[in-house]
Structure formats: C-alpha cells, structure tokens
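Limitations

Structures in this collection are predictions, not experimental determinations, and the ligand pose is part of the prediction. Treat each record accordingly. The example that follows, with fe (ii) ion as the small molecule, is included so readers can see exactly what is and is not provided: the inputs are given verbatim, and the output is the predicted complex.
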Amino acid sequence: MNFTFGAVNINVTQEEKQAMLDEVLALGDDVHHYNEFRGCRMIAIWNGGGRLGGRDPKHNTAKGDFSYTPAGDACPTMQRVLEEKIFPWMSPPGRVTILRTAPNTGLNTHLDSTKEEIGTLQHKYRLVLNGAIDKLFFIDNKLNKVYMPGNYDSYILDGSHAHSIDPDPQEKITLCVGAPWKGQSSEAYETLKAKADYIAVVSRPETLDEWLDPAFVKK
Ligand SMILES: [Fe+2]
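Predicted complex:
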C-alpha cells in the first residue's frame, strides 16, 4: 500500500497516553538534546547502544544492540506500551525518540530520509501525547501545504515526503519510531495497514535542498 499518511488505531488507552506524557514531563533537561535542523528538542528512549544525545558520527544508533537509554529507563509505562502494542508489529523494532516542539514554534519543513531514498519504504510511526494534531502537513507537487485531520493521534507517515508542523499555542510532544524499522512487510504490519482508519496520498513535490537534513548528506 502506497500512502503518505495512514491513521492506525493500536489501542493505546487515554490512561496510558496520560501516564506516558507524565513520564516525559518528569524527565530532566539533561536527557534532552536540540535538533537544529528540525527545530525541536528530542529525547532518545530506545536505540542501538542505549545512547542519549543527538546524531554522533562515531555511533550509529540505528544499529547494534538495542536498549533503553537512561530516559527510557525512567518511563515504565512507555516501555510497556512499546513492548505490548508497538514493537510486535514492527520487524525489526525501530528506534524510539520523543520530539518536543515548543509552544508557538513550527518545525522546519524536512525529509526524514536522504534524497536518494525518496519513494522507497521510509515509514515512521507517531503517537501524539500532547498538542495539536491538525498542524501536521505534507507539501504537494504545487508546493501547497496539505494538512492532516485532527482526530488521529496514532499514525504512520512516509518520512521521505516533505513534511512539517505549523506553530500552535500548546507544546507538541510525540513518540516517534523510525529506522531501523522502515515499514517492512510482516503479517502483523499488513493486518494493521489493512484496517487503517484514514489514508492520505499526497502528490510528491520536487525536493528543495533546504528540506534535506545536512546530517544525512554524505561528505
Ligand atoms: Fe519528520
């Protein structure tokens, strides 16, 4: 199935979402890092090496032995939800990061992949824990912003399609799961996609260089 955005209900309860949000809000500043290119704070939760912090040329956190970071260790409800409701339909389970976009701040439009990966399988899973949902948009082939509906807080997106969020008075806090999981087919994932509540297909724009993450550009 080829889509830009697919809302999938994985049966995370309101209580679980609230508990995960409380866990994130209780974390100290020291476990956050700032992503200059996207324009938001991040917290590494589960990755290769169990490492906090941003991209490090010496350590590729999409590879190696996966474990919880010190921040992930402080979030027991999040660990349970990941293991019971998210990892089982991923093959392999992806890296987990929390994104925090400050109030009244938009993200910079970006791709979560290289230019060469556009159109290949680059699925990312998102669960919105706080903030507006309908500020997420994709850029279409006329460079218009195509906004996603506000009623789905659990969704998969094509990370190789230019996207961003507009500013909102509320802080946006999102649980994000990505590489090494890229949407690889498995029986569980195919079943999940087949019962998607909403699918959006947005035409693909010509890529602008400013959307490309300098961290992905090979030197
Ligand atoms: Fe993104």
